[in-house]
Amino acid sequence: MLFLILIPVVIVVLVVIVSSRPSRLNLTGAHVMITGGSSGIGLEVAKECARQGGFVSLVARNEQRLKQAKSEVEEHLKGGGERQCVTILPLDVSESYEKVQEGIRKVEEKLGPVDVLVNCAGVSHAEVFEDTPAEKFEWLMKINYLGSVYCTKAVVSGMKLRKKGRIAFVSSQAGQTGVFGYTGYAATKFALRGLAETLQMEIKPYNMAVTISFPPDTDTPGFHSEDDTKPEETRLISETAGLFSAEVVAKSLVRDIVRGEFINTIGLDGFILGNLTVGMAPCNSVVSATLQVILMSPLRIVALAYLKSFDVIVAKCARKKALPEADNKLQ
């Protein structure tokens, strides 16, 4: 009975204290820049933005893949008028801020200032901590974190002057919880969360918004390449969240970018992790805030059950590895 009485009180309090939404963004005629846009989630985001009338610029290292991606995205152009187009920028976003800034300025001369930046460029590496070379940690941090920093820094000042803009970061469910084998990768994805939360606070007064996405395993070329070499423990734990198509992930992300939502999640496990790890993240929806308040405690029990199952997986794999070692000693 007391619980039923408290719910309306909680909702009233949340209506007062929850932040207001930024104005909804219309992608028609907007310049959308997507890093990592030559494949995977980035390519699907580009297609969805093109369908909604956006002027799209694709950024990636491989020029041949970019040209192929450009052709694919052009098939989805509509609603943006005769001038709507797709352009490409061959660029390693992790090389240096100066080169990133120069490249983005050249694209802006063609398509106008960037209205939406979607930081999809990223790489993954799965290996137990002590076997991971030190240079792998540096490589992951440069591409996954600093690449996003450089691109964001190159466009954020202009967005503030125009009082219009969206910046999105593609993290991972491994940016919400530690996963066996991802000491290098997960750290970079956790770093993006810290960047996103802090940047959101700085740019909010300028009618801008940050969105950070935490996708599960996604059916992309990068995923299949990594899946061939990742430790068995990593693969078994990752499989518990299922495999989603890049198109589903992209549509969900674009929807939340347009709305100005801070956290973007996909699937049931994503919903659980999103509400459980929300912490001090901003929220501009009374419905979302209410669910977070109500569900955080019971979801902690669910999380502990998940962690127990992960521990069981790791223990089983450890025993499996120990058997050949024991046989060798006996011989």
Give an overview in words.
The protein is an alpha/beta fold. 57% of the residues lie in helices and 12% in strands. It has eleven helices and nine strands. It has helices at residues 2-17, 40-51, 63-74, 97-111, 134-162, 183-203, 221-227, 232-239, 246-259, 267-276, 286-330; strands spanning 31-35, 55-60, 86-90, 116-119, 165-170, 208-214, 218-219, 244-245, 263-265. The chain has a seven-stranded parallel β-sheet, sandwiched between helices. Helix 8 runs antiparallel to helix 11 (286-330). The mean pLDDT is 90.
Please mark out the parts with pLDDT under 50 across 5 or more consecutive residues, or reply none: none
How would you sum up the global shape?
Answer: globular
For the largest sheet, list the strands in their spatial order: 3-2-1-4-5-6-9
| Oligomeric state, counting identical vs distinct chains | single chain
List the total number of helices: 11
C-alpha Rg (nearest Å): 21 Å
Quick overview of this protein structure:
The chain is an alpha/beta fold and 331 residues long. The chain has eleven helices and nine strands. It has helices at residues 2-17, 40-51, 63-74, 97-111, 134-162, 183-203, 221-227, 232-239, 246-259, 267-276, 286-330, and strands at 31-35, 55-60, 86-90, 116-119, 165-170, 208-214, 218-219, 244-245, 263-265.
